[in-house]
Design a protein that fits this description.
The protein is α/β, with parallel strands linked by helices. It contains 1 helix and 8 strands, in the order ββββββββα.
Length: about 70
């Protein structure tokens, strides 16, 4: 292993992670995001977004447009 390499996820304030969810790798879960039970999170989840599935995908597109600069 290389020293100083980040390998673990960052979970911001107010995040809800459902039972059985796997959050894998150096990713970030934004503030107040919600991850559904048994989801597999492989990519960053923006703030205020709800994501479900394997792999996890956002299900509330309005939140993505409102809180993420496109």
């Amino acid at each position: 292993m290389e020293a100083g390499v980040k390998r673990h996820p960052t979970v911001k304030n107010g995040v809800l992670i459902g039972t059985g969810t796997a959050v894998l790798g150096d990713i970030e879960i934004g503030e107040y995001a919600k991850i559904g039970a048994n989801s597999v999170v492989l990519d960053n989840i923006p703030a205020y977004v709800t994501a479900v599935g394997s792999p996890a995908r956002a299900i509330n597109k309005k939140a993505i447009r409102k809180y993420v600069a496109v």
